[in-house]
Amino acid sequence: MNYAELKTRQRAERHAHSPNLAIRVHRSLSWLNRAEQADDLDGRYVFLWIAFNAAYATEIDGQQRLSEQETFKAFLAKLSELDQQNALEDLVWHAFPSNIRVLLDNPYVFQSFWDHQSGKISKAQWQQRFDAGKQRAKAALGARDTNGVLAVVFSRLYTLRNQLIHGGATWNGKINRDQLRDCVAILGQLVPLVIEIMLDNPNTLWGDACYPVVES
User: Does this model's pTM top 0.85?
Assistant: First the structure.
């Protein structure tokens, strides 16, 4: 599934969409389109993440505000419940299991590794967390726990997202190509699937989108 196929479907069905779903899908598709045009890994990953962000981000009360990671993990769990075709499960277990396993073994997309580099925790602490995280991921993989695997994977994707968005990497640099290739491969298949599941469930309450359109 790619932008052109999803956009054709969205145009045919958008008249029946609630305003919140309509704006989420419209925005997400626009960034997916831009991601598919990018000819560099860095740009493609950033645009894919914006497309994912456009799909899940919600305006919520400040007293109930969750961390961003908890918010998108809850969104992914919701998608899994709505996924009647088991497309997410098929993607995790058949399309890119090798990408996931390589990603889990890569310390450069594990936040505690960078916390150690900046002196916040010891080498023993980050290594212990890294090993524990891999054990949790292996347990989720062994139990075919799709939500559990996605939660671990997205925590790694989020670390790379922060590295790029906050200027912690050089564009087209040489030292982070492996993790970028793996993360682009994973997110490039997940984002279209996220949009497709949302289109399959137009009557679901998706919550108010961030920065609603304001007519002048």
Answer: yes
